[in-house]
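Input chain follows. Return structure tokens only.
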Amino acid sequence: MIKKLLTVSVTLALAFTGHAYAQGNSAGKTKAAACAGCHGEDGNSMMPSFPKLAGQHQNYLAKQLQAFKSGTRNSPMMAPLAAGLDEQAIQEIATYYSANRIAGNPAPKLPDNDDDEAPAKTDEQKKAELTALIAQGSDLYRNGDLSREVSACVACHGPFGEGNKPAAFPALHSQHADYLIKSLTDFKSGARSNNPENMMHMIAGKMTDQQIQAVAYYISTMK
């Protein structure tokens, strides 16, 4: 009898939790409607300069919205949007996006050369250059660069770019390369420095522009 009562209690508790989660997720979807223009309806932004939010850790998303609201993370675009959100709305929006699945990226392409006087590269040369760049990014992600004291990304963001949920280190896999390049460049310049102890500022500050491009391109290919 006791065993049956315990089973019923656990079942009811799980059902209630699932119902509450579904309600919160539905509320988050409604409140995230204003974000769809830049980040996509389900958090998969179609514009490379805006980050994908789908599949990102809930606690990381909430932390960033709180930072935009408080001004500790500077963004003229995000600040007024976050300012109107209370803590419940922040948590509901973060929960909604975290429950969605991030989409993969098409095969990366190197940007066109702005130097009109430079000789045009063949398709084979472009392919070889891209392959070498992604290989450099893979090595940097997994091993860092001891000569420049650049830490390996894998230590905080995981072997598959899955991040670290308890530590609020973001998932990176399948993120847009352009957004990653901008983020690392902002960390390097100090334009973005709201992370604990300026960890990313210290790391990115020691990276070359080529290294930033290389690791961003590699991460964008991770599934």
